[in-house]
Amino acid sequence: MSAPTLAEPPVAAAKPPRPPRNRLRRGLSLLVLRDYLTLLVAVLVVLLPLVYLGFSSFKSPSDLASHQFTLFPDRWGTDNYTKALNELPFGRFFLNSTIVTVVGAGLKVVLAVMTAYGLVFCEFPGKKLIFWAILATLMVPPQVTVLPNYVLISGMGGSDTYWGLILPGLGTGFGTFLLRQAFMQLPLEVLEAAELDGAGHWRRLWHHVIPMAAPSIATVALVNVVYEWNDYLWPLVITNDPNMMTLARGITLLRNSDNLAATVGPIMAGTVMVLVPVLLVFAVLQRHIVNGFTQGGVKG
């Protein structure tokens, strides 16, 4: 009788060799360098036109008419700003832009908040269909609706009026979508506790939902402020009276087809004056954009 043989222990699988630490560091460094270069190119693409615009607003007509590219003016001067301020009622344009921006952006935010709240916390027939219809508006370019809006608003007597400038743009599919996604991520326990305490929809909205979703609401407000302030196409169509023109629309009055070279400088100076206020607002509130988009991320 043969002695039993012992089973051989299983051979452990050989671990793959680790790459050298220096190679890992070199690979990470190349990835970081690539990301920084990509970010630098993107920043330059955005900033270079603005930098050129700012420096060109101080150039003389002869510098602007030169075919040789120069970033800095040969002789610095504020003649373009003086001419723009003297030839146009910038005070009136600024007032019109402020009214349209504050009222238009404010109403957009209020409507977006209420619509998003209803889509998240209220139950009614066709809620999903309404949400998909709101999303569909994001696929429609605003230029497509210019003609129908002009026919409707001008037929109602809205040409050269504040309500004619504000009314067509009150619907904001982007704001409603972003706030809906943000509201869906709010802690339901807080809202359920408020409901048990007898809080209705109005109280839950203003005392609980709005404070918790403040970053997203601030993002929607900032985006709408920038859009309303810089909007050019609709004011161009609906206004002909200089007393009702916004800043973006009023700058076009500086254009002189008989002497285009002499009007380029004042137009650039006027454009700088239009951009500076909204850039300051954006710089002060830009941190809310990151928080808002993070809070309003798509929830599965």
TrEMBL record:
TM annotation in the entry: 31-55, 93-117, 129-150, 162-179, 209-227, 260-285
Comp. bias regions, Low complexity: 1-15
Pfam families documented for this protein: BPD_transp_1
Major site of localization recorded for this protein: membrane
Lipid bilayer topology: Multi-pass membrane protein
InterPro entries: MetI-like, MetI-like_sf
CDD domains, per database record: TM_PBP2 (cd06261)
Keywords: Cell membrane, Membrane, Transmembrane, Transmembrane helix, Transport
Subcellular location: Cell membrane
Organism: Nocardioides eburneus
Protein name per its UniProtKB record: Carbohydrate ABC transporter permease
Similarity comment text for this entry: Belongs to the binding-protein-dependent transport system permease family.
This protein's record includes keyword Transmembrane helix: yes
Superkingdom: Bacteria
Domain ABC transmembrane type-1 as annotated: residue spans: 94-285
Annotated segments matching region Disordered: 1-20
